[in-house]
Design goal:
Blueprint: H1 4-14, E1 25-30, H2 35-44, E2 50-57, E3 73-78, H3 84-91, E4 96-99, E5 103-104, H4 112-133, E6 137-143, E7 156-159, H5 172-187, E8 199-205, E9 207-209, H6 214-225, E10 229-232, E11 242-244, H7 245-261, H8 263-266, E12 270-272, H9 282-293, E13 298-302, H10 305-322, H11 334-340, E14 344-346, H12 350-355, H13 363-377, E15 387-388
Length: 389
């Protein structure tokens, strides 16, 4: 297998453009300063058919512009997807939008109305701007949380994009992503101001790890504070997919390219993210990632559901009692606990069949890159939730 950047360059140099694709493309990445968004920007900047990558983010970090190359300029614009006029200005002259901007919150630190405003109304603004300015292609970054687990905690074991799974999503974050997905699919085929048609597709990630994964960093620090012991909540028979951030980003790059080249195949489609990271209990994968950075990290004991349920209830009572005097740090909640203990996995090759996706990074390389970053970043924790990406 070619090395990551060799494979990457090979793809760029051998891809043929159709007559309607001649000329350099301009891409807009909303949330391009976030965890997944920044990696998308990095990979887009290496593609020789793109002249500019615009980044629209409420946290505009100018260092993202370092990804600029001799042929591709990366520009950063500060703005919130809730601000339609600013978004409209950023979208003018764009050929493709990759919409990753979202509030990702699992601990109920962000009011639901605010999360909905960004994740749902912000998505509506993106689609509206594309129709107004005749931007023909939108790739939307979603999450497996938009599918489930549902409030009945029914498992999904190695399903795929066509697996039937019903019921109300339990996580508030998942609810907003499901609402946004509905908007994106309904917008596919809508008429643009120039008479063309909007084409959309959806990329669903599961648990994403890699450089700048703040949750993984937090777990590492917790393990180090407990003499390297990493306790876990998942029962032995649970299973969940993990995917390296570089491969999630690469799938976006390929999907966006092929949505232009083969709209009749990709338009209106949903794709699960995957790579060769082993599909197994989440605690096993986390241990492998953390122990690669620090061999002293070891798996501890399984915490029973009933014990964690009692701890959550106790915390809720204490939080109410102390609220007038002291705001406690966010703690695990029942919806997240139920997600953790429920098998929700998939097995698919749809992205490979539709647009030739192959992971850019192997499991071994993904693990090595993550470990290197963890070693360097262990002393600088970032808030893991409630962040706009």
């Amino acid at each position: 297998m070619l090395g990551s950047w060799q494979q990457h360059s090979l793809y760029s140099s051998t891809t043929k453009t159709s007559p309607e694709m001649d000329g350099a493309r301009v891409y807009l990445v909303t949330g391009g300063c976030g965890f997944i968004g920044e990696k998308i920007v990095e990979l887009l900047s290496q593609q020789d058919y793109i002249s500019e990558v615009r980044v629209f983010d409420s946290v505009a970090r100018e260092e993202v512009e370092k990804f600029s190359t001799a042929t591709t300029r990366v520009t950063v614009m500060k703005g919130d997807v809730r601000d339609y006029e600013l978004l409209l200005a950023a979208t003018r002259g764009v050929h493709v939008v990759i919409h990753t901007a979202a509030v990702v919150d699992y601990r109920n630190t962000v009011p639901f109305r605010e999360m909905r405003a960004v994740n749902v109304e912000g998505t509506e603004n993106v689609l509206r701007a594309c129709c107004a300015l005749s931007v023909p292609c939108v790739v939307y970054t979603s999450s497996i949380a938009a599918v489930g687990p549902n409030t009945s905690h029914e498992p999904m074991f190695r399903g795929n994009e066509d697996t039937e799974y019903s019921g109300e999503v339990e996580l508030p974050y998942g609810k907003t992503k499901a609402m946004a997905e509905k908007l994106v699919l309904e917008a596919n085929g809508k008429e643009l101001s120039n008479g063309g048609k909007l084409t959309t597709c959806i990329i669903r990630a599961n648990t994403v790890y890699g450089e700048k994964a703040a949750v993984l960093q937090e777990l590492y620090l917790v393990a180090k504070a407990r003499n390297g012991v990493l306790d876990y909540l998942e029962p032995e028979d649970t299973e969940r997919n993990y995917t390296y951030v570089g491969n999630v980003a690469w799938m976006h790059v390929l999907a966006a390219r092929n949505l232009q080249l083969k709209p009749e195949l990709l338009a209106g489609q949903v794709y699960y993210c995957y790579d060769d990271t082993p599909t197994r209990r989440g605690s096993v994968i986390r241990h492998q990632l953390l122990s690669a950075a620090d061999p002293a990290v070891r798996l501890g004991s399984h915490i029973p559901y009933w014990k964690m349920w009692l701890m959550i209830q106790f915390y809720r009572v204490i939080k109410i009692v102390l609220y007038p005097f002291w705001k406690l740090q966010p703690f695990l909640n029942l919806p997240v606990l139920n997600v953790i203990v429920t098998t929700f996995s998939y097995e698919t090759d749809k992205a490979s069949r539709h647009f030739g996706y192959k992971p850019l990074f192997t499991w071994q390389e993904s693990k090595r890159r993550t470990a290197q970053w963890l070693k360097a970043a262990a002393g600088t924790p970032e808030p893991p939730h409630g962040k706009k990406n």
